[in-house]
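Customer escalation, tier 2.

The customer says the design service returned an amino acid string that "doesn't look like it belongs to this structure." They asked us to rerun it and document both sides in this ticket. The original structure tokens are below, unchanged.
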């Protein structure tokens, strides 16, 4: 291992708490985002719709009443505190609830209301009088399946006749039994076994098939094939729904194999911008000097919340040690920890219980902690070839227009190489990154 780059964001306050977060895989990332998010991501972008039949009218709804839901479900929706459909739900819900059922591929970033939408569709389509599985929902991981299950339970709170079962590793059923639950949610491998090998489910009776987090799904070896094998056992008139947060070529190819004759809905991510961000860099000669500069910054300005990123656990550990010696309360959250433990730390931070969060590059990539006003790149973001990772830089520092809050970004530079990276980032975004003298910090407040 040549370099140990550490990418830092610092969040700070009167009580100096600090966290270290290290994470890796996309499934965990997606779960973390779900666990820490408790409201919708708002977007000003319009949905793009591609209809299977361009001549059929396109409905969109502005209220849940317009959907003519079962009263128990409307009660469930309002019980969850939803007042009106989210942007993607406005178009996706009428499509999913139409008769005859329509197939759908939908893409929008995490937090825009996809899960709530397909859960409502599943609950609307089942007949509770029929005591056999009618909806299958596959998720990439055990934990994500449980999260979706929770949403089904919440939304179906006033519709207790509808039952749910988890097709997940470890849920062992007696041979020869037939499931009575109307909704089965699980991971592709177990779901496939339950449909074919064990025959707990009769796939021919399935009315709705949901494939969630398609982009995460295809990142796991074997999941793609298993999902396709399940899909092939379903009747032709079964409604197929696929959701994804991103839409690269590979996801798109997979989506088309899972969903025949689809309607397609896409919602663009809100553009992030550096316009409302003041960017600085601090020139140092070593990581010790960077740490000293960090201390000076802490001592000089009041920061509501801040984050520090680390590239390696080793650097993260070192920084945590230094910071606790300075009297900061440092919590180390690393890749070895359970995802729930990591989520708990991030959640406490999001709720403002702790004010400083130190994290590695990998961990905080897809994590949005909106209230962070100060971001410190203890190391600049670089890709595996050592080139500037502009996308990560923008995601860490950038803000979407809707928050409009001003932010502060401080980059630590400690070598010719990192200075070069900084210049290239500056050039890429065509936005000046000002030099900051940490012995004279008046200018940044
Ligand atoms: P996604 O599946 O796209 O990540 P979710 O369905 O999980 O999004 O929704 C994100 C958050 O927003 C959840 O906390 C969910 O309860 C909430 N939410 C979903 N739909 C609505 C709505 N129409 N109104 C208010 N909150 C909503």
């Amino acid at each position: 291992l040549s370099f140990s780059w550490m990418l830092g964001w610092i969040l700070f306050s009167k009580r100096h708490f600090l966290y270290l977060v290290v994470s890796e895989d996309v499934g965990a990332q997606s779960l973390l985002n779900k666990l820490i998010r408790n409201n919708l991501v708002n977007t000003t972008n319009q949905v793009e719709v591609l209809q299977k039949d361009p001549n059929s009218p396109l409905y969109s709804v502005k209220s849940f009443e317009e959907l003519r839901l079962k009263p128990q479900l409307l009660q469930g929706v309002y019980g969850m505190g939803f007042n009106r459909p989210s942007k993607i739900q406005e178009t996706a819900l009428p499509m999913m609830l139409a008769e005859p059922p329509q197939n759908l591929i939908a893409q929008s970033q995490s937090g825009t209301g996809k899960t709530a939408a397909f859960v409502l569709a599943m609950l609307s389509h089942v007949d509770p009088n029929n005591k056999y599985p009618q909806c299958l929902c596959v998720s990439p991981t055990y934990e994500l399946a449980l999260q979706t299950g929770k949403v089904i339970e919440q939304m179906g709170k006033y519709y207790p006749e509808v039952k749910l079962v988890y097709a997940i590793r470890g849920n062992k059923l007696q041979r020869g039994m037939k499931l009575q639950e109307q909704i089965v949610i699980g991971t592709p491998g177990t779901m496939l076994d339950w449909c074919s090998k064990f025959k707990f489910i009769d796939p021919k009776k399935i009315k709705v098939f949901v494939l969630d987090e398609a982009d995460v799904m295809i990142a796991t070896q074997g999941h793609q094939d298993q999902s396709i094998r399940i899909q092939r056992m379903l009747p032709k008139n079964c409604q197929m729904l696929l959701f994804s947060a991103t839409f690269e070529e590979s996801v798109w190819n997979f989506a088309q194999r899972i969903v025949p004759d689809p309607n397609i809905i896409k919602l663009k991510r809100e553009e992030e911008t550096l316009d409302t961000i003041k960017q600085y860099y601090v020139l140092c000669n070593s990581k010790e000097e960077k740490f000293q500069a960090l201390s000076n910054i802490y001592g000089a300005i009041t920061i509501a919340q801040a984050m520090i990123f680390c590239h390696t656990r080793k650097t993260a550990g070192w920084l945590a040690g230094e910071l606790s010696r300075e009297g900061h309360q440092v919590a180390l959250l690393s890749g070895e920890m359970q995802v729930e433990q990591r989520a708990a730390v991030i959640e406490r931070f999001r709720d403002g219980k702790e004010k400083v969060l130190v994290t590695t590059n990998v961990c905080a990539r897809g994590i949005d902690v909106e209230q962070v006003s100060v971001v410190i790149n203890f190391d600049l973001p670089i890709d595996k070839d050592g080139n500037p990772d502009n996308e990560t830089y923008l995601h860490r520092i950038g803000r979407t227009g809707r928050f409009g809050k001003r932010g502060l970004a401080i980059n630590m530079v400690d070598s010719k190489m990192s200075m070069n990276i900084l210049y290239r980032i500056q050039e890429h975004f065509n936005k000046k990154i000002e030099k900051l003298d940490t012995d004279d910090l008046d200018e940044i407040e």
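Tier 2 assessment: The sequence is consistent with the input. The two ends are 39 Å apart (CA to CA). The first strand starts at residue 17 and ends at 21. Sent an explanation to the customer and offered a walkthrough call.
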